[in-house]
């Protein structure tokens, strides 16, 4: 090596080492950031000027306490931020000899501190100027600890990670059929029975007939958090800027309670009912008593009461429910759910709290003091906003982290949908709402339902880095999106998370969307007229009558707007008109199997051809054995031969156990 190149190399090396921390690695991205030169060395002593008293205490203690030296030259100043747009807003100025942190409240100082942590390397804190505030007030994650029970240590670890990315709500789904997870002193059966089940895994519990077991008896699996553990968790989260929002499900998803206390269901039979009896005064007493203990543990202004998917199976035939309906002057059982929820809303309001519920709660005559968590369509957000409720957007299509995040074959079993990081990042809350309504959205949240997620490692794998995409939307907003730029920061954060002992999905190895979907296919039927001898299902129209011959294949998810859904006997039966007599050598049809949502491969596939559209000749007819395995996969059923015809009729029958057929693209060659 020549002297010159040696010199250049060492210069380059030195530059690399001293290069300032790249602003692009901050996640979520601050609203305004200018990186400066050099660092503020954290190894030396500092003089602290605190002009805001207790508001800065948390950060002061965390960061500087041990380093305070009144004789030091370098200063850390805490000042009051004037005209803050949010309690979480902050300003940060870092220079080699001084740091100034301004905020209007302790939350703002904490957010500034979280940014400073991302700016810190071994050398110190990177010099910069940052002006920052959140786009949304509610930036949440929901963890379902019922379907699988997770230890408190796992929750604390997630709180640590959430706080690094400026999340401020941890919603814990504490109760569901699969197990009651919170100690309630007044009702011990919730803890010594409803918290325990036969089957460690949710799927084993299903296979074992959804049985509950006495605590400590042979094979009893599960558990619950004690009130002391939860109080400690609340404190731990608060110190990190996170409010814990507890969820107690009602009136549906309550099989575990109604087996422990069958008198609270319409028929009083254990193991038979999912819904509380809204006609029984005892139900209201029970739920209020539970909520009293819940409020005593959780200081959160927001208390979640579920409200989703009540089947209301027995309400129509229950004498007490009928009596209640008369009393309320209603003629529909839906009004009973509305009544129960609004009763709980009032009860919570009287205690200075605010009811949060899944979007089914909109039906109730609720006080404005309500938060609706929209998990289905945006039209429900519109409705909730019209009622004057707060709205947190958590739509299944973007925010359900129980869905696959990469090519299903490369992933542990998940729920049958496809939500890669890029899809989460692409979310614009309320994009199809008028601007005035869009601006009223309170926040965003991702939900980790855990039917398929039995371990902490797998839960982390499903959470990260997708949660980072949501953190970015929640904090930075959606006005200056740029996925490639975000992805660079997310990749850096994945490495950081791994170094911290978290188990994120390896974003850099992502395969992405189904290959077939990415490339339009050319074939003889593209653009042909398709006649449906049996209509497609109205909920899964995809692109309507062109779907099957538009040259675009379906992706990993049945709900991606490319797969067309069919249900019922002989439900798949279409005739394609090629326009004129055409030589054909194969007709291949793509089917999906996704056992979770009951989509199965067909049990029979038939192809017929015709010149006049009336007289058809069958060229292929084959039966297939049905199976619920694989859980998610795709196959093409194909006839090959040599015919000349104008019309092609393709038929398929559902699996031997019924369910849906999902079809996309009939490829004619
Ligand atoms: C929904 C259920 C939930 C379930 C999840 C799975 C809501 C509000 N309710 O059907 O209990 O775990 O889907 O994705 O999401």
Automatic annotation (TrEMBL):
<protein>
    <recommendedName>
        <fullName>beta-N-acetylhexosaminidase</fullName>
        <ecNumber>3.2.1.52</ecNumber>
    </recommendedName>
</protein>
<feature type="domain" description="F5/8 type C">
    <location>
        <begin position="563"/>
        <end position="669"/>
    </location>
</feature>
<dbReference type="InterPro" id="IPR025705">
    <property type="entry name" value="Beta_hexosaminidase_sua/sub"/>
</dbReference>
<dbReference type="InterPro" id="IPR029018">
    <property type="entry name" value="Hex-like_dom2"/>
</dbReference>
<dbReference type="InterPro" id="IPR017853">
    <property type="entry name" value="GH"/>
</dbReference>
<dbReference type="Pfam" id="PF00728">
    <property type="entry name" value="Glyco_hydro_20"/>
</dbReference>
<dbReference type="InterPro" id="IPR008979">
    <property type="entry name" value="Galactose-bd-like_sf"/>
</dbReference>
<dbReference type="Pfam" id="PF02838">
    <property type="entry name" value="Glyco_hydro_20b"/>
</dbReference>
<keyword id="KW-0732">Signal</keyword>
<feature type="signal peptide">
    <location>
        <begin position="1"/>
        <end position="23"/>
    </location>
</feature>
<keyword id="KW-0326">Glycosidase</keyword>
<dbReference type="InterPro" id="IPR000421">
    <property type="entry name" value="FA58C"/>
</dbReference>
<dbReference type="InterPro" id="IPR015883">
    <property type="entry name" value="Glyco_hydro_20_cat"/>
</dbReference>
<dbReference type="Pfam" id="PF00754">
    <property type="entry name" value="F5_F8_type_C"/>
</dbReference>
<comment type="similarity">
    <text>Belongs to the glycosyl hydrolase 20 family.</text>
</comment>
<dbReference type="InterPro" id="IPR015882">
    <property type="entry name" value="HEX_bac_N"/>
</dbReference>
<keyword id="KW-0378">Hydrolase</keyword>
């Amino acid at each position: 090596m020549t002297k010159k190149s040696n010199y250049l190399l060492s210069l380059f090396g030195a530059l690399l080492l001293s290069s300032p921390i790249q602003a692009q690695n901050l996640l979520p991205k601050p609203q305004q950031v200018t990186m400066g030169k050099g660092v503020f060395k954290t190894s030396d002593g500092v003089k602290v000027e605190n002009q805001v008293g207790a508001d800065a205490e948390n950060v002061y203690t965390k960061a500087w306490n041990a380093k305070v030296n009144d004789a030091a030259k370098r200063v850390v100043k805490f000042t009051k931020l004037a005209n803050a747009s949010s309690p979480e807003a902050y300003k940060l100025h870092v220079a080699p000899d001084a740091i100034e942190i301004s905020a209007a409240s302790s939350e703002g100082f904490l957010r500034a501190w979280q940014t400073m942590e991302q700016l810190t390397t071994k050398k110190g804190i990177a010099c910069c100027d940052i002006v920052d505030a959140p786009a949304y007030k509610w930036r949440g994650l929901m963890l379902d600890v019922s379907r699988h029970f997770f230890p408190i240590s796992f929750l604390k670890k997630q709180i640590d990670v959430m706080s690094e990315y400026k999340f401020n709500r941890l919603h814990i789904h504490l109760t569901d059929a699969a197990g009651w997870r919170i100690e309630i002193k007044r009702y011990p059966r919730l803890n010594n029975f409803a918290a325990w089940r036969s089957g460690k895994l949710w799927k084993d519990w299903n296979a074992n007939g959804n049985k509950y077991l006495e605590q400590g008896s042979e094979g009893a699996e599960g558990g619950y958090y004690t009130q002391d553990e939860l109080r400690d968790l609340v404190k731990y989260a608060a110190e990190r800027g996170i409010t814990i929002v507890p969820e107690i499900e009602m009136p549906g998803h309550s099989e575990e309670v109604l087996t422990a206390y069958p008198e609270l269901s319409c028929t009083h039979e254990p193991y038979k009912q999912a819904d509380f009896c809204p006609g029984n005064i005892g139900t209201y007493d029970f739920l209020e008593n539970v909520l009293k203990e819940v409020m005593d543990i959780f200081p959160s202004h927001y208390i979640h009461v579920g409200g989703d998917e009540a089947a209301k199976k027995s309400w129509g035939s229950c004498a007490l429910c009928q009596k209640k309906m008369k009393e309320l002057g209603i003629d529909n059982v839906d009004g009973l759910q509305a009544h129960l929820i609004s009763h709980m809303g009032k009860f919570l309001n009287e205690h200075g709290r605010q009811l949060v519920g899944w979007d089914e709660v909109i039906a109730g005559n609720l006080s404005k003091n309500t938060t609706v968590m929209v998990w289905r369509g945006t039209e429900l957000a519109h409705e909730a906003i019209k009622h004057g409720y707060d709205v947190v957007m958590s739509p299944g299509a973007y925010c359900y982290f129980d869905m696959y995040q990469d090519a299903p074959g490369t992933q542990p079993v998940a729920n049958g949908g496809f939500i890669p990081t890029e899809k989460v990042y692409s979310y614009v809350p309320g994009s199809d709402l008028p601007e005035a309504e869009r601006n009223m959205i309170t926040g965003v949240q991702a939900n980790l339902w855990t039917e398929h997620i039995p371990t902490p490692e797998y839960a982390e794998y499903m959470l990260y880095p997708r949660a980072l995409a949501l953190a970015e939307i929640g904090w930075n907003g959606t006005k200056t999106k740029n996925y490639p730029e975000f992805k660079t920061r997310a990749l850096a954060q994945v490495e950081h998370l791994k170094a911290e002992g978290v188990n994120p999905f390896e974003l850099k190895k992502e395969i992405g969307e189904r290959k077939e979907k990415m490339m339009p296919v050319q074939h003889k039927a593209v653009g042909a007229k398709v006649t449906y001898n049996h209509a497609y299902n109205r909920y899964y129209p995809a692109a309507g009558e062109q779907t099957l011959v538009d040259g675009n294949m379906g992706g990993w998810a049945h709900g991606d707007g490319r797969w067309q859904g069919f249900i019922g006997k002989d439900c798949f039966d279409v005739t394609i008109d090629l326009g004129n007599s055409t030589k054909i050598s194969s007709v291949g049809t793509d089917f999906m199997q996704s056992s979770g949502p009951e989509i199965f491969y067909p049990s029979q596939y038939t192809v017929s051809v015709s010149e006049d559209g009336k007289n058809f000749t069958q060229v292929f007819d084959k039966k297939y054995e049905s199976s619920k395995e694989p859980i998610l996969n795709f196959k093409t059923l194909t006839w090959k031969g040599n015919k000349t015809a104008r019309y092609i009729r393709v038929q398929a029958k559902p699996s031997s156990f019924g369910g849906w057929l999902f079809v996309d693209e009939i490829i004619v060659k």
